[in-house]
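Module 6 notes. Inverse folding takes a fixed backbone as the condition and produces residue identities as the prediction. Think of it as a translation problem where the source language is geometry and the target language is the twenty amino acids. Below is one complete input and output pair. Work through it position by position during the lab.
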């Protein structure tokens, strides 16, 4: 467990030590390995409190944010403290007490000021930029009408509201834990770091693997999706593999953006594009019939068995139907579960929240950016999804704008979606490469930090390799979209619901267990604990406000059950898809061509 890396027992009240007390030497943060198992949660919390106080003091001296800065976030400037600290000479002359814990002789020459400034250099994003990044990451309203179509008005709106609140609560939990364990001395750079500090290495490895897999699959599916759109717009005259390859090459260049702050403007643009698609498609739907052809395979009616969208013998189609509850169908359970999981996935995006906080000038501002984005996203989902279901009913498509019958307007929306998609893919690629860079290149191969010249060169080389691998994986797997449903159930649900609750549970238990104990002593590095092991965890669980821990435990288990349910429905759909011949992307014929 994260805080049980050493067994610290309580010492005598006079401050003397006992044979059962472990007294580590006061090793400076810059003298420790990248992931040091001897750092306790108490030490993380001590430095986090110092960092938050400094950030708050700086924020108090800044002028209030203007309206234009909210709409067009300016490029942030990383803060740096100049001057020489009194203990710099001591830091250079005194090596760590434990030689086996010193990663390299070079780190012994790094002063406290240089170490914390290196962390400050990575924090330049504003709260406004964070709002657009979160919205770009999560906002995907084009499947909401489809989801409501598989569940009906009551269940559809109710579950989207519930999952929206749960996603916001999960974001709050990640924010709360991040503020209490992140610092300039021990920066929390990614989701895996957060899991490591609470539960230990096993959760870090699990999170990093699932996150790297999820983000690479997300990049691949957006490349393939854009390729499908281009092939449809070209009326299948352009070779399909070329349509997809175009966007992989575009990613080579857009991926050179290293910081999330610089992605803020593109994220702003992506939000505007999605709003344009919504308004255009709503106007067209209100004045035209559904795309009956597209509804045969990609609509809510098709997901429920297909009878409600099948043509009559005379060639006409059933009228638009709307239901207050779950619609009647021949495939009700699987179809409704697929619609339900679309609602779950609609708020998926928490896998990037820690990375967003890690680059914020003031991570405390993340909460207002996150809740602002969540309420905006929910408003878009409910207004747009309800509109689509009202006008198209069972014909509502998985991508609503592809359910438009006029080809011209369908093409306009497709092209706008392509631009929005490549921006989202750039965001996913940015975080995905950072996960690999921080946890593989830097930790195993001792790669230089991204703020150095060597790090920038290595990033430039890594980007095209990453996009190429993502494209090859996506292009080579038949029924790739079916596979992504399985990955979403296994990965996305964990990041948005399971892991936040599990990390929050571990944090609150350990924090409760600290009550009445001495705080971390930075001069000696000593942490006194009255007990350890199972006894400590049980005491922490049943301390004051135990019902919060019980709620988080139920939340964790419920999320895992939801993930299993989604995986079951996705695997059933994948098995059904493989009963018919499948082709991959390395062909000239588009899957949409028939």
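Target side of the pair, the amino acids:
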């Amino acid at each position: 467990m994260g805080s049980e890396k050493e067994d610290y027992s309580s010492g005598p009240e006079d401050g003397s030590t006992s044979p059962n007390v472990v007294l580590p030497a006061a090793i400076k943060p810059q003298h420790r390995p990248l992931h040091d198992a001897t750092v306790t949660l108490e030490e993380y919390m001590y430095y986090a409190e110092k960092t938050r106080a400094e950030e708050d003091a700086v924020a108090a001296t800044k002028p209030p944010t203007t309206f234009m800065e909210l709409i067009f976030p300016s490029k942030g400037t990383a803060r740096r403290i100049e001057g020489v600290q009194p203990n710099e000479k001591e830091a250079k002359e005194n090596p760590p007490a434990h030689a086996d814990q010193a990663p390299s002789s070079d780190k012994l020459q790094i002063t406290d000021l240089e170490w914390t400034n290196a962390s400050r250099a990575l924090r330049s994003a504003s709260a406004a930029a964070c709002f657009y990044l979160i919205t770009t990451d999560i906002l995907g309203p084009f499947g909401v009408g489809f989801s409501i179509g598989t569940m009906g008005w009551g269940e559809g709106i109710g579950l989207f509201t519930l999952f929206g609140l749960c996603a916001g609560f999960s974001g709050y939990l990640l924010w709360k834990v991040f503020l209490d364990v992140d610092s300039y001395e021990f920066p929390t750079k990614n989701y895996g770091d957060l899991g490591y500090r609470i539960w230990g290495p096993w959760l870090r490895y699990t999170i990093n693997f699932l996150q790297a897999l999820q983000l690479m699959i997300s990049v691949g599916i957006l490349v393939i999706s854009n390729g499908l759109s281009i092939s449809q717009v070209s009326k299948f005259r352009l070779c399909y593999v070329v349509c997809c390859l175009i966007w992989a090459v575009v990613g080579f260049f857009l991926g050179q953006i290293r910081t999330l702050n610089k992605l803020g403007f593109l994220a702003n643009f992506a939000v505007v594009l999605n709003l344009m698609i919504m308004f255009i498609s709503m106007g067209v739907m209100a004045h035209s019939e559904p795309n009956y052809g597209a509804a045969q395979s990609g609509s809510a009616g098709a997901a429920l068995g297909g009878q409600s969208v099948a043509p009559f013998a005379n060639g006409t189609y059933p009228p638009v139907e709307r239901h207050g509850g779950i619609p009647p169908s021949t495939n009700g359970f699987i179809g409704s579960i697929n619609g339900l999981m679309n609602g779950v996935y609609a708020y998926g995006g928490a896998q990037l929240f820690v990375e967003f906080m890690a680059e914020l000038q003031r991570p405390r501002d993340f909460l207002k950016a996150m809740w602002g984005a969540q309420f905006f996203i929910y408003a878009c989902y409910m207004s747009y999804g309800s509109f689509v279901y009202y006008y198209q009913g069972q014909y509502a498509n998985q991508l609503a704008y592809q359910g438009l019958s006029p080809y011209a307007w369908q093409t306009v929306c497709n092209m706008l979606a392509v631009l929005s998609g490549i921006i989202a893919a750039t965001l996913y690629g940015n975080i995905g490469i950072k996960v690999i860079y921080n946890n593989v290149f830097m930790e195993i191969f001792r790669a230089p930090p991204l703020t150095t010249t060597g790090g920038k060169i290595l990033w430039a080389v890594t980007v095209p390799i990453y996009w190429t691998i993502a494209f090859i994986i996506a292009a080579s797997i038949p029924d790739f979209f079916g596979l992504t449903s399985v990955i979403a159930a296994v990965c996305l649900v964990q990041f948005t619901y399971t892991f936040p609750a599990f990390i929050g549970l571990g944090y609150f238990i350990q924090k409760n267990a600290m009550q009445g104990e001495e705080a971390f002593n930075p001069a000696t590095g000593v942490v006194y604990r009255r007990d350890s092991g199972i006894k400590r965890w049980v005491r922490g669980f049943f301390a004051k406000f135990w019902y919060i821990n019980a709620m988080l435990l139920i939340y964790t288990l419920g999320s895992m059950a939801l993930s299993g349910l989604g995986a079951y429905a996705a695997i059933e759909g994948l098995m059904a898809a493989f009963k018919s011949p499948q082709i991959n992307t390395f062909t000239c014929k588009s899957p949409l061509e028939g």
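Reference fact for the lab report: The longest helix spans residues 144-181.
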